[in-house]
Amino acid sequence: MNQPQILTRREAVERIRAAVAPLYDEREAQAVARRAVADLGGLSDSALMADPAAAVAIEGFDDAVRRLAEGCPVQYVTGRADFCGRRFAAGEGVLIPRPETEELAALVIGHERRARALLDVGTGSGCIAATLALELPDAEVSAADISPAALALAEANCRALGARVAIRRADALGDLAEVFPGPFDAIVSNPPYVPASDRATMHPNVRDHEPAEALFVPDDDPLRFYRAIARAGRGMLRPGGSLYFEIYHRTADAMRRMLAEEGYAEIRILDDMNGKPRIAWSRLR
Length: 285
Prior knowledge:
The protein is α/β, with parallel strands linked by helices. It has 2 domains: 5-78; 93-284, 3-Layer(aba) Sandwich (Rossmann fold). It has helices at residues 9-20, 26-40, 45-50, 61-69, 74-78, 99-111, 127-135, 148-161, 176-179, 204-207, 224-236, 252-261, and strands spanning 5-8, 55-58, 80-83, 86-89, 117-121, 140-145, 165-169, 184-189, 194-195, 216-217, 237-246, 264-271, 277-284. It has a 7-stranded mixed beta sheet, sandwiched between helices. A two-stranded antiparallel sheet has the order 1-2. A two-stranded antiparallel sheet has the order 3-4. α7 (127-135) links the parallel β5 and β6 (140-145). α7 (127-135) packs parallel to α8 (148-161). The protein is globular and about 60 Å long. The model has no long low-confidence stretch (mean pLDDT 96).
């Protein structure tokens, strides 16, 4: 086993910042470097900033720098991602949690205090399901995914965090209602939603490293997952139950129409922190 490389915290941050500078703007490059050094060196953010001249020992530092310079997301390099104030394991082949998705989780938590049963479809790392289980301890939380890598990571994250979640394999486009018949008070999902034609415009660290099957949908049917979940939800939700979706900002109007056609009412489209339509919330009639 290689011995950890010892550098000052300032040196470690600067080496990574310089390596990733061609890939990001100055602010992002600095943020990536600090996140990587803190996580790889086992430091808190405050400790990293408070004493930059202190030494830090990082095992596999040169390999980490190389991977980051190749555009690998920092969460995959460190194996860690933050979501709603908790630390989750991250791994290649599973979508990295996003700040926008924290807004989705927060909305569900705020509106489902009395929920008895909740379902997270396309759970990925398990970040939404674990957060709901921990913040709404009186609810039974279930989670579905089709990816073996996602199911394994979600299980590991829920176990590490002490979150009671029933995780099972299910296909949102197929056997969802058979595997999870319900009844549920709410179904929440952040499914694939980026049209394939937008792939070229995405940042390479997302496009070239995160799982395409968790990101992209055909241009001719961008709502395929939402429609399938909404349709299945008619038999899975209690009357008046809620459906919460993270959505692509360009499909907000189409989403509203689809939900109405599928039997949902009180449809609301909410903006995210950047002012883009990002959450669709509706109730089963």
